Amino acid sequence: MRKYMKYILTALSIFIVMLLCSPPLSAQTDNPVLDQAVASGTYDPIAATLDSLVNLNYIQRLSFASSGTQQVNNFQPFEVPAYADDIYRKRIEKIQTPIPLAYNREVQEYIDMYAMRKRGLTERVMGLANLYFPLYEQIFDQQGLPLEFKYLSIVESALNPTAVSRVGATGLWQFMLATGKMYKLKVNSYIDERRDPVKSTMAAAQYFKDMYSIYNDWLLVIAAYNCGAGNVNRAIARSGGKKTFWEISPYLPRETRGYVPAFIAVTYLMNYSSEHNLSAVPPVISFFEADTVLVDRKMQLRDIADAINVPVELLTYLNPVYKKGVIPDADEPMALRLPTSKINTYIASIDNIYQQQESSALASISVSQLTDAVNASDDQLVKKYHKVRSGEHLQSIANRYSCSVTELKRWNHLKSTRLKAGQKLTVFVMTPKKPEGKMVMKANTAKENSTIASAVKSDSSNKANNQNTVTASLEHSQNPTKQEDSNSKYIYHVVQPGDTLWKIAQRYEGMTVESIKQINQLHSNELKVGTKLKVTIGG
After folding, report:
1. Do 171 and 248 belong to one domain?
2. Pick from 37, 52, 218, 38: which is nearest to 128 by CA?
3. Which of 209, 265, 443, 527 sits CB 3.0–4.6 Å from 110 for a disulfide?
4. Which residues of the chain have pLDDT under 50?
C-alpha cells in the first residue's frame, strides 16, 4: 500500500507542476506598444531579454565601461564572419552533449541575432558567464544534468538576475511566482529568492529533473520550461501523439517555437565564439572573486558598502535577492555575497556597522524623548558643551563622549563634518542620578559614562538581545582585591551574543581576560548571554 501511495503522491506532484508551470503567454501589460507587438506577432521575448542589458545601469556603468576587446583568429576589428550552412551544421554536430542539437533555418536566425545584429550585447553576456557559469556547472553536475543547461539561462534572462518578463517571470531562470513557491523559493516584501543565483538554479535543476521523468527528452524538457508542461501535453495530443520537439513544434505557443532554436544557437556560439570574432567583455567581478558570509541580524547593504569601501551598486548586484537593499531579520542566517578581497574588512567592521545602524536609529529620536526614556532608570541625561580644539574632528569627539557622528550632527544641526577651533558643540551623556543627602561620584572620562545608545531602546528594534548595551551603574567595589585601588570604579557589562572575554577586555581600557575572570570569580572562558560582568574603568 505504501508503495502505491508513493506513486500516487509523485504523480500528483507532477500534475500540480503541469498546472502551475504554464505561464500566461497572452497576458496584457501596462505597455500598449508592447501589447500591440505581442498581438501582431512581432514581439520576440528572447531579443527583448537581451536588450534589457542596455538598461541595467550597474552593468553598463561598471562592468562594461571599456569597449576594447582582444581580437582572435586574426580577424579585423569589427569584422563579422559568416559561414555556409554545412559549416554550421558540422560544428553543431561536434558539440558533445546528451541534448540532441539540430541545425535549421530557425536556429540560423538566432545565430544571426546573437552573432550579428546584437553582437555587442552578446559579448556582455559572455562576460557575465564568468560570474554565473561556474555556479551552474557545479549544481548541474551534482544533480546529474547536462552542463549545457547553463546556456538556457542566457535565453531566459541574458544573465540579468533582476530581469522581469512582461508576464512577471523573474530572475536568472525566470520563475513565475506560483512555480517559484512550489519549488520553495521564498518571496516577500524584502526578499525574492527567484533572484537568488544559488537557490533559483537549484530550483531550475529540480524542475528539469521533474520534466525529464515525464518526457524522457531534453528538448521537450526545455520547451516545458518555457511554456509549461500543460502546453507541451496539448501539443503532443494535437500532433497525434508525436514525441519530439520538432514534430510538435507547430502546435506549441509561438514564443516556445523559437525558444529551443535560440537555446541551440546560444550553445553553438558559446562553443564557437572565436570563430565569430566574439570576445567576452570582462565583468567587474568574476565568480571566483566573490565569496559568501552569513548574516544573523538586520543590515543595510549601503552601510556594509560604506564600511568596506565598495560601491553599493556592486553589493546590490551581487545580492539581487534583497529587493530593498536590506538584509532582514530571519529565522536562519542570511547569505551575503562580497568581493573576496573585502571579506576580512567586513568581518572587522561588523560591530561598527551594527553600532552605526543603532546610532542612526537613535539619532531620529528627539532629546525630549531620550529624557523621558531615562526618567525611570537610575541614570540621568546631562547636557554638556564641548569646545572644539585645533585638530579635533567629529569622530574623535564622538569617541570621547561615547556617541556617534550622526548624533553629534543632529544635536548641533550640522550639515557637514567641518569644525572650527573654538566652536562649541552640545553633547548629551548619561550619569548616575544624585541620591538625596549624598554626593555622587563624577565620572572623569567618557568611558565612565554610558552611551545614549545603551540607555535607550531603539525604536527600530525591540529585541533586548540585539542591543550591545552596557548597564550604566557606577559604583565602588564593596570587596576590592589587593591589586585594586580603593578608588577603582566599576560598570557592569551585559554579555551579548558573540561576546568573548577577549572582545570585552578590548573594549575597556586596562582590562585583560585574566582581570575580568578574577574580578568576577570566573573559572572558565565560557560566557552566558545576559550575564552581568564587572569591569573596572578607573583607578
Report:
1. yes
2. 52
3. 265
4. 3-4, 6-12, 15, 17-42, 60-61, 64-69, 376-377, 436-488, 539
Q: Are the C-beta atoms of 98 and 146 separated by less than 8 Å?
A: yes
Provide the residue count of the chain. 539
What is the Cα–Cα distance from 257 to 272, expressed in whole angstroms?
Answer: 24
> Buried b / exposed e across 141-158, counting CB within 10 Å, b at 16+?
eeeebbbbbbbbbbbbbb
Instruction: Please tell me whether residue 524 adopts helix, strand or coil conformation.
Output: coil
Residue 463 domain-assigned (yes or no): no
Please give the grid coordinates belonging to residue 337. Answer: 555575497
Kindly state whether residues 261 and 335 are assigned to the same domain: no
- 281 close to 64: Cβ distance less than 8 angstroms: yes
- Confidence at residue 427, expressed as pLDDT on a 0 to 100 scale: 85
Pairing of strands 424-432, 470-476: unpaired
Query: What is the distance between the alpha carbons of residues 26 and 253, in angstroms, rounded to a whole number?
Result: 10
Same domain for 10 and 82?
A: yes
Cell numbers standing for residue 87? 559549416
**Number of folded domains that form the chain:** 4
Q: Which amino acid is at 349?
A: S
Backbone angles phi, psi at 534, to 5 degrees: -80, 135
Same domain, 345 and 377: no
Phi, psi of 427 (to 5 degrees): -135, 155
DSSP assignment of 169-233, as one string?
-BTTTTB-HHHHHHTT--BSSSBBGGG-HHHHHHHHHHHHHHHHHHH--HHHHHHHHHH-HHHHH
Residues 407, 412, 417: CA angle, nearest 5 degrees:
75
State phi, psi for 410 to the nearest 5 degrees. Answer: -70, -45
Neighbours of 200 (CB within 10 A): 27
Whole-angstrom Cα Rg for the chain = 31
Which DSSP state fits 61? I
Query: From start to end of 103-168, where are the E strands?
Result: none
pTM of the model: 0.62
**Beta strand extents in 399-469 (DSSP E only):** 424-432
Query: Across the strands, what pairs with 534?
Result: 492
Do residue 207 and residue 225 come from a single domain?
A: yes
Task: With CA atoms as reference, report the closest residue to 449 among 460, 437, 441, 461.
Answer: 441
Gap between the Cα atoms of 38 and 48, Å rounded: 12
46/158 Cα distance (integer angstroms): 9
Burial of 235 from C-beta contacts in 10 A (0-12 / 13-18 / 19+): buried
Specify whether the CB–CB gap between 35 and 28 falls below 8 A: yes
- Written as nine digits, the cell of 387 is 569646545
Is residue 448 within 8 Å of residue 474, measured between CB atoms? yes
Contact 175/182 with Cβ under 8 angstroms? Answer: no
Buried b (16+ CB within 10 A) or exposed e, 375-398: eebebbbeeeebebeeebebeebb
Query: How buried is residue 411: exposed, middle or buried, by Cβ count under 10 Å (0-12/13-18/19+)?
Result: middle
Which helix (H) or strand (E) segment holds residue 360: the answer is helix 343-363
Helix pair angle (218-227, 229-238), 10° resolution: 120
Any idea what DSSP says for residue 63? Answer: I
